[in-house]
């Protein structure tokens, strides 16, 4: 699937997509655009918590060669799941379900790679925030090797609220971060678990770090002090698999 298949441009097509409740990940709007029809679309989008980016016209021209009229939308090739329903279903089916929480992952290829590894390791669902994260594009689908169609993805208003809900459901939350002396290999990963991974640049946000049950780091023996987020996520997931297979 190419990323073009996930692009809608022009005022009326995007308004129709909103009216028909298509899954829209992000909308790009030309800066300093005062078209009242676009302002009406912005009001509709704000009510649905869809990410809006105000960008130079060059950005819109790169996204599409058509007459974009100052607005381009990236739609999602998948439908999203309810967090509450997914957790309830997972707990009823498994003694120790496993979830991944992504706190503002911005690179679509990292996102796709995480989805692929998550599906391979038996993750029950991936939880992302409605605003601020990477959109689900053709590149995400391609990098996931189709795994994106096999694993539920839940969108929430705030990651912190999702953490609280997970904890209230007796699911242990562990955040991957270098800001701790705790080691992932010293933690019990056999219980119901949610692993939190942070953004490429800033890591897990402070408010989320303060909300989780445990923080864990990976031992780094070289001079570089961090791993790519999709690689780190893979290590966390396969350590979970290893412990659960003992």
What low-confidence regions span 5 or more consecutive residues with pLDDT below 50? 1-5
Helical fraction: 25-40%
The helix-strand sequence is EHEHEHEHEHEHEHEEHEH
CATH homologous superfamily title of the largest domain: SPOUT methyltransferase, trefoil knot domain
Terminal Cα span: 39 Å
How many beta-strand segments?
10
The coarse silhouette is: elongated
Structural class comes to: alpha/beta
Mean pLDDT: 91
How many domains?
2
What share of the residues does DSSP label as strand, in percent?
A: 15-25%
CATH fold descriptor of the largest domain: Alpha/beta knot
Summarize the structure.
The chain is of the alpha/beta class and 246 residues long.
How would you describe the overall organization of this protein?
This protein has 246 residues and is of the alpha/beta class. It folds into 2 domains: 3-75, 2-Layer Sandwich (60s Ribosomal Protein L30, Chain: A); 83-244, Alpha/beta knot (3-Layer(aba) Sandwich). The protein contains 9 helices and 10 strands. The strands form 2 sheets. A 6-stranded parallel β-sheet has the order 7-6-5-9-8-10, with helices on both faces. Strands 1-4-2-3 form a 4-stranded mixed β-sheet. Helix 1 runs parallel beside helix 2 (36-47) and helix 5 (108-120) runs parallel beside helix 9 (229-244). The longest helix has 16 residues, at 229-244. The radius of gyration is 19 Å and the shape is elongated. It starts with 6 loop residues before the first strand and ends with a helix.
């Amino acid at each position: 699937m190419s990323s073009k298949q996930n692009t809608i441009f022009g005022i009326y097509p995007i308004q129709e997509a909103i009216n028909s409740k298509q899954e829209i990940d992000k909308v790009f709007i030309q800066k300093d655009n005062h078209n009242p029809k676009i302002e009406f679309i912005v009001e509709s989008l704000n009510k649905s918590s869809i990410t809006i980016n105000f960008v130079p016209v060059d950005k819109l021209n790169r996204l599409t060669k058509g007459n974009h009229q100052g607005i381009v939308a990236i739609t999602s090739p998948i439908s999203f799941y309810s967090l509450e329903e997914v957790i309830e279903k997972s707990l009823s089916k498994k003694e120790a379900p496993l979830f991944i929480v992504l706190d503002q992952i911005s690179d679509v290829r990292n996102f796709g790679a995480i989805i692929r590894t998550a599906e391979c390791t038996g993750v029950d669902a991936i939880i992302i925030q409605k605003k601020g994260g990477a959109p689900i594009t053709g590149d995400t689908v391609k990098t996931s090797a189709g795994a994106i169609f096999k694993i539920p993805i839940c969108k929430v208003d705030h990651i912190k609220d999702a953490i609280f809900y997970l904890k209230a459901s007796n699911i242990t939350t562990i955040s991957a971060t270098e800001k701790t002396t705790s080691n992932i290999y010293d933690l019990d990963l056999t219980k119901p678990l949610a692993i939190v991974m942070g953004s490429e640049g800033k890591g897990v946000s402070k408010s989320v770090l303060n909300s989780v049950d445990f923080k864990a780091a990976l031992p780094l023996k070289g001079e570089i002090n961090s791993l790519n987020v999709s690689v780190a996520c893979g290590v966390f997931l396969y350590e979970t698999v290893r412990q659960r297979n003992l």
